[in-house]
Design a protein that fits this description.
The chain is mainly α. The chain contains seven helices and no strands. Helix 2 runs antiparallel to helix 5, helix 3 packs antiparallel against helix 6 and helix 5 runs antiparallel to helix 6.
């Protein structure tokens, strides 16, 4: 018997500050809702600049899928009574600006943005899927469907010469850092 056990303190129980399973799922739904909201804004910015060009149909296709993702998480926000992030107005402006600026840099830069965002989201969704238990199988299955579509977007970006964008590696790194920061912030705020 350890000293802690002798004092009646169980080492295997939750610690102060640990999140409950419900809080963990609420954080997932909150951040996924915020992420899909941001993705919708990125495509809106790209479409504002490139929507009438040769890549407009591709961008509309991806934007339509992101809208389905957003609608699904919006329903979960209501059904599960999850507080959305307070930063939606910031993500609206930042997402649109990111989309418009990368599109203004050219089609390849817009596609580089897509690749960077979708690679970050793939890793994020994979971690969430691995963390969800069988009692959250419907949520896990939905995340996996959306993850596959996000990977489709990444592949579309790569097929459309994302890696030939000016300063691709730097642009990609900066966007990924921003995405990971937005994920962490949106889980809590």
């Amino acid at each position: 018997m350890t000293d802690l056990e002798e004092m009646g303190l169980d080492q295997t129980g939750p610690l102060p500050g640990d999140t409950t399973p419900r809080e963990t799922v609420a954080q997932m739904i909150r951040v996924d809702h915020a992420g899909e909201f941001g993705a919708k804004q990125i495509y809106a910015g790209q479409l504002a600049v490139l929507g009438r060009g040769p890549k407009g149909d591709i961008l509309r296709h991806m934007a339509a899928q992101e809208q389905v993702h957003l609608d699904s998480f919006s329903k979960l926000i209501v059904q599960r009574r999850v507080r959305p992030t307070a930063l939606l107005p910031l993500w609206q402006v930042a997402g649109f600006a990111l989309g418009a600026v990368t599109a203004a840099m050219g089609t390849r830069a817009a596609m580089a943005c897509t690749v960077a965002v979708e690679e970050t989201i793939d890793a994020h969704y994979a971690a969430q899927s691995a963390e969800l238990t069988e009692d959250e199988a419907p949520l896990r299955d939905m995340i996996e469907v959306f993850r596959a579509e996000e990977l489709e977007h990444r592949d579309i970006g790569l097929e459309n010469e994302a890696e030939l964008a000016p300063a691709y590696r730097l642009l990609s790194a900066v966007i990924k850092i921003g995405c990971r920061a937005a994920i962490r912030i949106s889980e809590k705020v």
